[in-house]
Amino acid sequence: MRFTKTTLQNGVRVITVPMKGNPTVTVLVNIATGAYYETPEQSGISHFLEHMCFKGTSKRPSSRDITIELDSIGAAYNAFTTNEVTGFYAKADVKHFEDIGDIVADIYINSTFPEAEIAKEKGVVLGEIDMYRDDPQERVHDALREHMYGGEPAGRDILGTKETVRAITRGDLIAYHNLHYTPRNTIVTIAGGIDEALMLEWAKNTFGAAYGGEAGKEFLTKDREQAAPETVLLEKDTDQSHIVLAWRTFDRRHPDRFVAHLIKNVLRGGMSSRLFAKLRDEMGAGYYIGASGSSYNSFGNFSIYTGTTAERVPEIIGATLGEVARLKSEPVSDAELHKVREFIKAHTIMSLETSDSMAEFFADQEILSDKMRTPEEFEGIFSIITAEDIMRVAGLMFDNRKLTVAAIGKGLNKEAIEKVLSF
User: Fold this and answer.
1) Does 84 qualify as catalytic in the annotation?
2) Which of 408, 413, 407 is nearest to 237 (CA)?
3) Which residue among 38, 41, 50, 115 is the active-site one?
4) What pLDDT does residue 213 have?
């Protein structure tokens, strides 16, 4: 798999990923900004700005001008905001490369933020905030985050609060756009079945004249120490209770982050994984079971989450902790280690079959990693991780003093939950 990174004279980074024979092409523009770049008073402005970039440009005055043009060529398109990245993309038949490229670039460079649209879009975003807060599966993760990182950037929601969203003005949007949407903060990624020289020529012609100074900096989260496991229990009248167990772990430069990813897949990589086998197959406890590791510039966490009935919450927490403890005390067998490596390899390859997934794969690495790696390079890293590495890193990660458990549901038994956590 081949990619090329080119830095234009103004600082814009261009990543080109030719995919011979692929019938589509994706143009993705990422800006290294998001919720962690906001002050508390600005909370939600990155996300709101992303919405407003679709509300009209100097060339396409309204949102319908943008969407009708994209729909007329059958394009798939969207935008997103995370804690550290804002992105805009469009994907279409290769013959429409310059069409989608022109629209995505126009949105990035020439958005006008019409005053009337700001007022209307606030209603949309306020409804989005309500939607997620009404969803118990989302709310339990929010409550966990707020508890673990309260007072720090990581404790705030990407959407912001109703108060901060209502306070956003057109001047705020322009100032934030001017500060962060700068050449040195921008990555243009083009992936698909067109000639790489054409990709680069278009990027130079379109983004080479962009200007701007140094971008605003991220506000780093300062993680805190825990002396013992902590709990966050929310009462809500629901038939299903949702549980999240989260440990404070590694930042994204930690040398053991790749071992942590392998551990994640031992626990929940496929239907033969340990958590699936234990919680669903053996105990019949919950429909969904997940595990994920998140690493940022100054902190990280690892979480396991599932849903069950309220009366089984303590039992499920105990069983989950039992599976985690096994990783610290029992070596993973050669057969299981081989299975997990193959699972990671295959799912990485399958996830990169489309031009949009390929663009995202390399763009995310450029912004969020120490270097860009191909799937083959990742395979090489995982191939040398041993059972001893897994035991050692599991011992570091799953320190019960770093554990926080959040649950939401009706009639949760606080005493029983805390008893399970009294190691």
Assistant:
1) no
2) 408
3) 50
4) 87
